Amino acid sequence: MKYIVESKDISKRLDIFLSENIKDATRSYIKNLIDDKKIRVNSNFVKAGYKLKENDVIEVELIQKQSENIIPEDIPLDIMYEDDDIIIVNKPKGMVVHPANGNYSGTMVNSLMNSHKDNLSSINGVIRPGIVHRIDKDTSGILVVAKNDNAHKKLSEQFKVHSIKRRYVALVKGIIKENNITIDKPIGRSVKDRKKMAVTDKNSRNAITHISVLKRFYNSNVTLVEAELETGRTHQIRVHMAYLHHPLVGDEVYGKKDSKFKVSGQMLHAKYLGFIHPSTGKFIEFDSKLPEYFKDILSALENKEKAAN
Hints:
Structural Genomics Hypothetical 15.5 Kd Protein In mrcA-pckA Intergenic Region, Chain A; Pseudouridine synthase; nine-stranded mixed beta sheet; 15 strands; about 20% helix; globular
């Protein structure tokens, strides 16, 4: 794994930079890598507090933080499509994508290790075999999984250049007046709470979300929207909608607790995914239906609107 330091990261500590850029990496994990001589800057071993300079070349050899033995589990998955290169999974709300601190069982990877153990790419190591991208635990919907390294590389490149098409459906608080909004605000770690992301100019990356209103429920003061991602930052839709003062219903991280809808976790569904197939070179697309709990709530909202008219 290699990084080239950009001007925005000049003078940042090495351990902080890597903890922000390596998924699920804590500063203690980074320090262990440095102590074990797994990290070089410009081919030299340095300390965790090394202050970065522009164009520094950082090379990282990852080691597994926990046991490398992921236990296969017989957990049913909704597989929408599969061929020799990819698996399209419709992930349910409440399922974690891959093992991480506090979640080493019951994940989508535990299930895939049971059904596709020898048919998953190895690029992301044994903790995340086949995983090209993620969605949050309480976000439902479509994910593409790579069955071999060639497919993984080609899919990752599409994510890198933002050519993959992703559309989500979300229920947000408040009535959005505009029919279409483009949110072009950078996202980075919150300076107030490192576990959260935020719109910020400090140590952030550009983030663009296109919002289209699908339905306004005036009597319940909520709006159904479609969100199309131009970039793919952590918690991007949740952070951008909270920035607009329209947090997602059920999102207690970026919004306030609201028992009105009796849902746990944000109402967000990854509905559509389109990309170039890694082998055929043809554009393919997938669309998943809203989960039942989501449809039930929309039905109740519709009934309330009709009763009020």
